[in-house]
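Continuing from the previous page of notes. For each protein in this section, the sequence appears first, followed by its structure tokens. Read the first protein now.
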Amino acid sequence: MATTACPNILMIMADQLSALATSPYGNPYVLTPHLQELADRGVVFQNSYCNFPLCVPSRASMVSGRLCVNIESYDNGCELLATTPTFMHHLRLAGYHTVLSGKMHFIGPDQLHGFEKRLTTDIFPANYNLYRPWEVQGNPPRPVRPTMAEHLKHAGPVAWSDQLEYDEEVHYRALEQLRAYSRRQGASADQPWFFCVSYTHPHDPPFITAEYWDRYENVEIPPPETPPPGHVPHESDTWVITYCGVDAVGLTAEEIQRARRGYFAMTSYFDDKVGALVGELGRLGLLDNTIVIVTSDHGDMVGEHGMWFKRSAREWSARVPLIVSSPGRYPSGRRIRENVSLVDLYPSLLSMAGVEIPLELPLELDGHDFTPLLRGELVDWPNEVFVENYGAGTIKPVRALVKDRYKYVEVYDLPPQLYDLDRDPGEWHNLADDPRYAEVAAALRARTLDGWDGAALEEKIIESQRVRQFVKRALDVGHNHPWDFQPLFDATKVYSRRHRANGPDAVKTVVAGFEQPREK
């Protein structure tokens, strides 16, 4: 059983937040003072990536520490098997109280995957509905209903929205849980906790309250970077553009500016939530023994390269913030240049908690423990990350490798791409056919294709989509039994009745300023 020496861990997640849309990552136009403050007190991984630029696969990969190709998570309609170990299973077995408030976008009957407790339901359904089979998408792929891009034309302030309703509940329950932790007594007071608070902002559509929209009234919001003369988009970029319907809606320069403003304003909303959670930790006296981690499942193109939303291996879509703050454990104000990704969280979180993987567990993780980097130690770091994409908006398997300063992108059956991210951070100049980079391209291609067969994978993905479509059709007949998580509350153990509760949420009862004795 863990002891008080084990740190608490608060992991705060955004949905669709690009690292490049925050001030700690050099963006001077987005107002994120709380993220900046956390970065100043913590460690910033400058080159952190998701492993799949789409919600369900990215999160499944993150919690399992394995690339999506190895857990067969191909799109937003893929189930993570209940037998797949997650880092929550390890932490829970080691004595941690594992809790989730908010989104994790698990598909299928298991809506916990090692979490002992969920405080809210998810914002999206847990069924097989949120994907489109490759065989019906067309080439180029196009949506079958009003396009996501149509929302971009109407970006602006709103009084309220489903996303705001969800995140306000997530935040309320999160604060409630932190306060419960601060008031525990007895044996439960010493139990460490892993608490994930996961918001849906700044996910599209770009609608936010006037409070946040107005923050950008006199703030410069630059347009997307202008392509160099003669630039021809890669075919896989065109797929993302057509699938989201961007080419069909014809955005004006003013609409692009408003859509970017909406995204930045939603990012400021998330930033305020981060500040409130960290501030509450401090107010409750929990901050000194809590490691705070901020990240996102993937980014957003926000108009760069003519693309919006995610589904691309390009930097705005694949780069995510990763900030770790625990000044008593790790140096403050450090910036780490090594390439890391979300699969590295699995072994790293276990290392932070002092938890070892059981020897009898046949587990091959794709991630690596980055805690030595946090401590400033010199280690033999592989300095590479893989970004996969098999979801809607692509119609061929995609695998990208970021190694050192280069990014190599293999789209099965299409020309390869190679970018020097140091010299060309905008990814405009494809060096794959440049003779001067032939040796680099060959080495990166060999590493990218090591154990990865695009042709065989294409067949396997299409087969998976056919099977899931069949099961979906069957489940839609007759009475439906949703898999969505149902949060239940026991009213006999709240407010002045809390003293009857046992376990990690048991607290003292205070009435009129006087602590009441526990009922015997």
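Done with the first. The second protein uses the same format. Note its length before scrolling.
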Amino acid sequence: MRRRWDIGDAVRRFFRAPLRESSPVRRSLWTLLFAVLLAVLFITSSLPQRLDVNVGEPAPYNIKAPMEFVDRPATERAEAEAMEEVAGVYEQDPTIGDEVMDRLETVFTEIRETRDDLLATYDPDPGDGEDISTSASVDVNRAARRLDETIPINVTASDAEVLLGVRSADIDAAEAQAESMLSFFFSQGVKSGGLDAFRDQIRESFGRSELPDDLATFIGEMTAELLEPNLLYNAEETENRRRAAAEAVEPKTILKGQVLVADGEVITSDDMVRLRDAGLLVDEQPWRIYASSALYALILVILAAAYFYRLDPDVLHSESRLVLVGMIFLATLFITRLTMTVSPFLVPLAAGTILLAVLMHSNTAVYMGLLMGLSLFLVSGGEVQVVLVAVITAIVGALAASRIEDRSDLMRAGALTSVAGVVSLVGYIFYSGGATITDATMWSSLLWSGGNGILCAVIAIGTLPFLETLFGIITPVKLVELASPTQPLLRRLLEDAPGTYHHSLMVANMAEAAVETVSGDPVLARVGAYFHDAGKARRPYFFVENQFGGDNPHDKLSPNLSALIVIAHVKDGAEMARQAGLPEPVIDFITTHHGTTLAGYFYSRAKQAAGAEEVSEEGFRYPGPRPQGKETAVVMLADAVEATVRSLSRPTPDRIRGVVRDIIHARLEDGQLDQCDLTLRDLDKVGDVFVQVLSGAFHRRLEYPESVVKAMAEEEKGVSDDEDQGSDQS
């Protein structure tokens, strides 16, 4: 059992977590979402019959354009042609040419230095034309290795012999020609795509030069290798120009009435695009349907917002209530759309109004029922009789569910809805004169209309617990269930802490009667009082009402530890209530029934034990919060009053009245009632009810001798401040 409740609590907290923090922006987004979903529902409901064709199939007839629109396939082809005509954009990078020319200069410098270094060992000043390649002092291989490190192509020993064996004038001429050719090509611009062709031109040019053949071949190959592209492709600019060219193309249009596909002609992919753009396919809609659906959805949302703004502003300021209304509204219309496929009169519009009446208010339910009727006019395709019957049943369902105390009352509301549906349909049939007594269609419609109310009741009964849990709403139906003695937490309280259980019953009687006089919710107050001390079931023997004359464990504990144990029953009760799946409004009674009051009895004991030392109140005050509503405030007062009066040895009406007055005054002075909306007049009414209920409960008392009365009066001195140990442990 415990594991089931834990899982239920986790699921509940998971779904409710997004709704805890509300803000105008979030509520606006929810409203926009509901408007969009409503528009989508209208769109899907308003679609006419469309073509169901595919590529490769023949056209069933001459398909004509219902309106003028852009011929996308033709326009896209024209745009593609315009984009292809735009040449790629290249930008010249001057740094590349400079770098290549520097490398060329470095290469020839190295060639000259190598020649000078190697020739110096042979003859410091060789004459022109002298063949030095046969000199033994020249290390050709070493020269080749040295040059290979600088020249961008592979330098062999033969190449080195060529470079060392030519005249200096030939080297100068080769350098001049290489510089000239590279400068020429860089000035013209070299693209990566034409690089190979340019290199071939360099080789051919050197092949036609007056240089020695071997030298021309080597320098030509080296120069060709040095050449690099200096025109770089600018993809972004190219794309911008092509996009501009495409945008400059005039759209190709198809005129209204123009034949899109002739009868029997095979449908192509381009034809499918045109049919789709014309809104003629089953999965496409014309813009008019979109626009009208969005407009109607906006109007309905504005009407709903205007109602809530004027008559129920709490909905606009509460995200959970706003989501609740939108969810019920949309879900009802969606279910209605599904059931209309069975019969147009099987439209459970009343299911939504019944839920709204139970969860919120009957006035809100009636108004939202009217808006649902307007929505149904679009969903049903404008069938007046369907809308009329649905609206009447919705209003009757809302009114019938305005006072629900048990789930069986929902079936009664459903039955009344069925009667209203049948009667309204009969009235319309008589008014229109469109059917006779032997008309089977009429009887079928009446049968579906009668079953509609039962369907509404079933939907309401099935979804109500889910909505109660998801949105944390306590309905009268839920309160009645929680008040049952078979409720697991109440049964545990009765078995483990019977004294606390009977104390809670007394507090419930007092709170219910008092809350009714101040226009609160008496049923909520009673249920909250039942559970306000649920935490005592965890350590019942630490509370005086469960000790039954036995040893008091607090006599053996320090005041600080005793206060800690007693105060912990608030936190324990909240944890046990959440594990048991109790809604938050009931848990509020547990967390607020002591507010931030002081555990006076244990605080006094601590001060006595401390002697002259200062004792802080911080460890002896309940954590709160203080009561926020009438019901929780009254339960706080009833709890303290009942515990104190129960501790009196002679609770006469006058003494009860004095206790009630002192406790209410003490709570006011302590600021415990600052956050609730009880007036001083309300507190007077609450006090009178407390005195009346308690005097009736304790009316049979023996009269004690005067001396005993004085002794008891002395013993009970200070009750209004500390409420004695019994009050602290209540």
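What the second structure shows: The chain has a mean pLDDT of 82. The radius of gyration is 48 Å. We return to this in next week's lecture.
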